[in-house]
Please model this.
Amino acid sequence: MYLESQGRIVSGFAQQTLGGINGTVMDSSGAAMHAVTVAARNVATNLKLSKNSNNDGSFSFVDLPVGIYEVTFTKDGFKTGVYSQILVDVGRTTTVNASLQPGEVSAMVTVTGTSLLNEVDTTNGYTLDSRLIENVPLGTGSFTQLALLSPGLSADLLSGAGVNAGLGNQDIFANGQRDTSNSFSFNSMTASQIQRALCAAF
Model:
């Protein structure tokens, strides 16, 4: 399930399974570096893509299968920069800004840790994989309680009355918007109400 804090909930069962990596390569003084060889390797499948950074030091990989990646930066006269454990998630672009140090290419500087930065757009979201969804304890069993894990989302307590409450669903408020501004998508099908969304899912 992919949760957007702009009032949309997109199911993880949808067909989109791609993400991206972008960023900028700089030297130790902060100057942009062009013609740096940037390689992105999927750790699980060993899929490897490579390209050179642009004149302004920027680079971008699009339509990458989701997974954990290792991003390597190489250029003559500089130590090789290796950024491991880079998470590529569904419909998201992870930003990896690299800083290369002078030295031999054979010398490596390894940075470990997943970047959570997204400099591509203003979308603020949270992604749950199927294993986490199955293991998260829910008081009512409703997917709306999973939505509350996304930044910027809140919900009223269940009143115990009404159709939605009977299903264990909660009214969701995204970044101060009204709950009536939400839309729910399941397998690329959009519904404006929780009841309709549930019917579309099953």
Residues 70 and 146 are 30 Å apart (CA to CA). The first helix runs from residue 130 to 135. The chain has two domains: 2-13+124-201, 18-112. Confidence is low (pLDDT under 50) at residues 1-16.
